[in-house]
Amino acid sequence: MSRLIDSLDAAIAACQDPAQADCLRAERAAAQARSGHLAEARFMLKGLRVQAQRRGRSALAAWVPFLAGMIEHFEALSPQAIDHFGEAQQRAADVGLPRLQALALAWMSLCHFNARRFGGMVDTMVAAGQLDAGRDLGVQARLCLVRADASRLAGLHARAQQLYLRVRHSAMSQGDTAMLSAMAHNRNSGQVDRLGLLDALGGRTEDEARLALLEADSCSQLDLGMGNEGLVAMPPVMKARLYTVLQRWAEAVSLYDAALDEAAHTGMASLVPHMALNRAWCRWHLGDRQRAEQEARALAPLVDQQPDADDRAAGHARLAALLARCGDSAASARHQALAQAALDEFQAFQATLAAHLARVDAELGS
User: Fold this and answer.
1) How many CB atoms lie within 10 A of CB 168?
2) What tens digit of pLDDT does each residue of 162-173 get?
3) Residues sharing a CB contact under 8 Å with residue 43, sequence separation 6 or more, in sequence order
4) With 70 as the cut, is the pLDDT of residue 266 above it?
5) 8 Å CB contact between 82 and 112
6) In the chain, pLDDT over 70 holds for what percent of residues?
7) Using CA atoms, how far apart are residues 111 and 80, in angstroms rounded to an integer?
8) What is the rounded distance in angstroms from the CA atom of residue 300 to the CA atom of residue 207?
9) Cα(42)–Cα(37) distance, rounded to whole angstroms?
């Protein structure tokens, strides 16, 4: 149990106001959802929804959609989570709860980031930071993590590392184990994305991949210790991608086989074409060449359906390499050109994102 949960338990026990105690219970359930204890959070949500309908529970009625958004997000990275956070933000504004309003806005900024709506990300991030005059550790850590993840995606790796360390400090000060886990997972995911793209483009990054695999194992151990039941497909997919970079072909195929179907239903559907191409690449190196070629040709039309340019670049590059090995030089050259075009698009995207982040720095300070 984290120190944050313990402190909320103590606050609930000491609270003399039943309405305020219910708000604290909602906050505790939200922390449970962030820790991956989704069954307990869902059970609490059901009861608190009933309580929120009672007279004089307008504050709880603002916390309930915030909790619902947490469950939606951690269950499957659901796009609907932002609607719940938006409702929580509006209700919190209506009843004068600036801390909850800032928290909801901070989570909305994450939803906007995940959907690559950077204008909305900046607007909600700045609004949350301006509301949070008291510099609440939970608000600041969440905002800082979004800034770190966005900086990493923009290719601002030194800046991202600085921000990740700031998140770590805030989380440790609050005893927020879930935030420490989120920071570790997000940083590792960013490393895996970068290494996977470099590998598909023909770069060699074994030393970095070994370190990233150690970090992935550490994340898995932390999840195990927390009893985290959320987004269970993500760690094996991350490890499979690293095994691919490290040319541990059989281990990679085993993990892809076990995790890809679940990944498709837990917020990672857009990654499936690229991940399945990685599996075909591994099959080729294991000698299952006919199946690898069949899978590659079946997946080729799906590559451009991926929303992120870096995933399209990696997918086309992987196809180019596979088709070259199959003796189809014309198709290989075509996909190589498409990979370069997607890579150029990704680099332009990074420059645009960096400009958005400069606005955040100007508004909130670096």
Assistant:
1) 18
2) 999 999 999 999
3) none
4) no
5) yes
6) 97
7) 9
8) 30
9) 9
